[in-house]
Amino acid sequence: MVEQPPAVPVRHERWRRAIEPALLVATLTALVVGGVAWFAGAPGVADRCWTIGTVSAIVPSVWWVAKALRRGGIGVDLIAVLSLIGTLLVGEYLAGALVAVMVGTGRSLDAAASRRASKDLQSLIDRAPRSSRRRVGEDVEIVPIDAIRAGDVLVVGPGETVPVDGWVTSGEAVLDESALTGEPMHVSHRTGEAVRSGVVNAGDVFEMEGGATAEDSTYAGVVRLARDAAAESAPVVRLADQVAAWFVPVALTLAAVAWWMSGSADRAVAVLVVATPCPLLLAAPVAIVSGLSRASRIGVVIRGGGALENLGHARTLVMDKTGTITTGRPTGTDIVAAPGLDPVEVLRLAAAADQVSPHVIAAALVQEARMRSLTLSYPTDVVEEAGTGVTATVDGHRVTVGARQLPPDASAWARAVFARSALDGAVVVWVTVDGRLAGAVQLVDPLRRDAPRTLRRLRSAGLNRLVMLTGDRPEPAEEIGTVLGLDLVCAQQTPSDKVAGVRRERESAVTVMVGDGVNDAPALAAATVGVAMGARGSTASSEAADIVLTTDRLDRLADAMEIARRSRRIAVESAAAGMGLSLLAMGCAAVGLLAPAVGALLQEAIDVAVILNALRAMSGGRARETVVPARTEEMLNRFSAEHDAMRDKLNLLRDTAQLVAAGEDPRRTVMLLRSTDDFLTGTLLPHEQAEETQLYPALAAPLGSGEATATMSRMHAEIERLGRRLHAHRRQIDQDGELAPDRSEDLLACLYGLYALLRLHFVQEEENYFVLTEPEERCGESPR
Asked: Where in the cell is it found (predicted)?
């Protein structure tokens, strides 16, 4: 059974949250009421009010000093306590009230800046099953999960969570394993295959044999990992305490020397009053709080000043793949139809049949069809079989859609699709119409359009090591690592593997971990700074993280890093300037140039200057936004839509090349070559020419110069050259009536060259230009 986290730290945190704002209210009220009484001609009442305010600050300050001493350190609160007591002893009540307000303000701001959310594992605990159905002979009983032992036969119904580790004994288990691996695709397990606790049954009822107790199973281990890793995250030491090691002895020594040389305790008190480290207590928290506010306005919730400070000097970034640098939503990359059939019609029939299925792949097919504005008929006689797919009647045809294994007697085109999908790391959805294999749709989890640009920004912001840890297979993981230029890619990672990987990176540098999903929660808690993609991510990952990106945009992390670095720099600058002025004031007080009350007012003036400087963190600290004029934005949207419309047609180039290479069907080869040339000359090349003459000149101003599109213009020229060359081949074929063998090699070079060049060109334009105008809710999505 999963243990409940202790409640003592929560109660301590609630007490702290209550006392610090109460102290500020009490001291400020005492100061104001005393000031009113003094102006009203009642100095005695004023002194009593100021004394109350001073005493109200002394009590908690003594507690904070004692707490620091128990930890083996001396905090700057010691100076505040001595100055507060000193003002009462020498009768400088106004000075004491002013110092009390400084202390109350500093503690409240510091608490707001550095308070970190507790690593509440409640959502993880809630997902853990409390009971399970156990079969004994012909009887099925519900038993507590603690009663399950190895060897028990368990019955897992649709939508239920697998209670313990074990293996399938009857039926086929279709499981949603995203809680452990982060991968959105459902996985089928046949009889005898192992299953892990914490995954959800996405298919029909199946039976399994328990292989371990709940406590020794995978999911309980995930909870323990998150709890243990969170316990390692020590609170960040306040900037003030880092300076206290030298500032406290200097202030006390100077106060003692001033008392000894003058013989007056007033001078010592005056030194202590101006030595009250409010620039430290205020400057850093104000700058940090300003940074937190600035980040929240762009959709980045940072749960404490410590996380912001750590983010500001992070050097290593560890990322999950699915939902972090990919969209986490399967998308169709290629639709292939059997010879003589229309790929678009195959997609329409498949999506129509899948409309009533809750499967993630079915949703992807329906979305693919809707993006193409296809009209979907409502299916009838729908039958969904776990691990096989959906069979339904659509427009009089019996359609079956599913990710089945390729039959041994499959046609050549189907074998080619299967081989290509293995290389691309794609899932193949086969479509059968009236008992005949009609087509296939390849699905991948596409890279976010903003991922390459964001990772470049993160490197320029100071991250010198980028690591990806994913539960996915090595092939797609390594392909993404190559595209993004990652320093290390680790595939097939379990939650414990991810925690170990994060801990290794954390030993050598301040480490940021980005992920979403329950499976990422332990790794997020183990990192110096955990960042959750919270717009669609699980509650558990958000609770285990120090930072939550509320908008589903990875580039906000780069913005947050720049805000963090700027806020930290301003905090240090403000504290240093304030402490320098305080040291100067201490010298003046030591030689008798400042009385305690005047020193307190001077210290307040220093504080105001420090706060005004620290408030600069409220602005700036984010990459310059590229302002795109409305007319240019319209053009970007138009050309982006044309890309989406042409993407499938690019496959004509590859399909034609395959026919030319095979040399088996000359008539169909010539027909397809003519269709390809018509597409190039009638659609694609005019599109590229319009981009060159209309879009690229319009982008010169937003991007800073015409050089920003120079390399893309060179690619346009190469596309134009190869297109004309292909058209020359088509004219020659029209003249001769057939494809001459001595022209096949050059024709293949043109076809494959254009296919590769156009695919790369489309991606580059989408990542560099079209992403400039995409709304936040779609920025993470990459088109097919």
From this structure: Cell membrane
> Do the bridges between strand 427-433 and strand 397-402 make them parallel or antiparallel, or are there none, so unpaired?
antiparallel
**What does the pLDDT average to over 709-731?**
91
CA 545 to chain centre: 10
270 near 253, Cβ under 8 Å? no
User: How many other CB atoms are there within 10 angstroms of residue 249's CB atom?
Assistant: 11
- Find where tokens 């036969």 sit: 153
pLDDT tens string 53-102: 888 888 888 887 777 677 665 556 677 777 788 778 777 788 778 778 87
pLDDT, tens digit, for every residue of 630-653?
Answer: 888 889 889 988 988 888 788 889
How far apart CA 638 and CA 466 sit, in angstroms, is 35
Instruction: Indicate the residue type of 661.
Output: A
pLDDT tens-digit series, residues 107-142: 676 555 444 333 334 555 566 778 888 998 888 898
In eight-state DSSP terms, residue 161 is B
Burial of residue 742 (CB within 10 Å: 0-12, 13-18, 19+) is: exposed
DSSP state of 281: I
> From the centroid of its chain, how far is CA 464?
18
Q: Is 202 left (phi over 0), alpha (psi -120 to 50) or beta?
A: alpha
Q: Which of 104-108, 567-571, 639-643 has the weakest average pLDDT?
A: 104-108
State the pTM of this model: 0.63
Identify which of 594, 597, 596, 608 has the alpha carbon closest to the alpha carbon of residue 38: 597
Tokens 């009822």 belong to which residue? Answer: 205
Instruction: For 651, list phi and psi in degrees, rounded to 5.
Output: -65, -20
Residues linked to residue 302 through DSSP beta bridges, in sequence order: 547
Percent of the chain at pLDDT exceeding 90: 18
pLDDT over 80 at 695, yes or no:
yes
Report the distance separating Cα 666 and Cα 648, nearest Å: 23
Nearest CA-CA partner of 546 in 523, 560, 559, 528: 528
Q: Is the pLDDT of residue 162 over 60?
A: yes
> Token match 């005493």: residue?
55
320 part of the active site:
yes
Within 10 angstroms of residue 760's Cβ, the number of other Cβ atoms is: 11
Gap between the terminal Cα atoms of the chain:
44
Beta strands in 472-510 (DSSP E): 488-490
Do 100 and 53 touch, CB atoms closer than 8 A? yes
Read off φ and ψ for residue 682, nearest 5 degrees: -90, -25
For residue 287, which amino acid is it?
A
Q: Which of 424, 386, 387 is nearest to 405 (CA)?
A: 387
The candidate with the shortest Cα–Cα distance to 385, out of 191, 209, 158, 199, is 158
Please tell me the distance from the alpha carbon of residue 597 to that of residue 594, in angstroms, as a whole number.
Answer: 8
Q: DSSP letter for 322, please.
A: T
Which residue is catalytic, options 77, 110, 176, 320?
320
Q: How many whole angstroms separate alpha carbon 458 and alpha carbon 467?
A: 13
Report the C-alpha gap between 344 and 365 in whole angstroms. 12
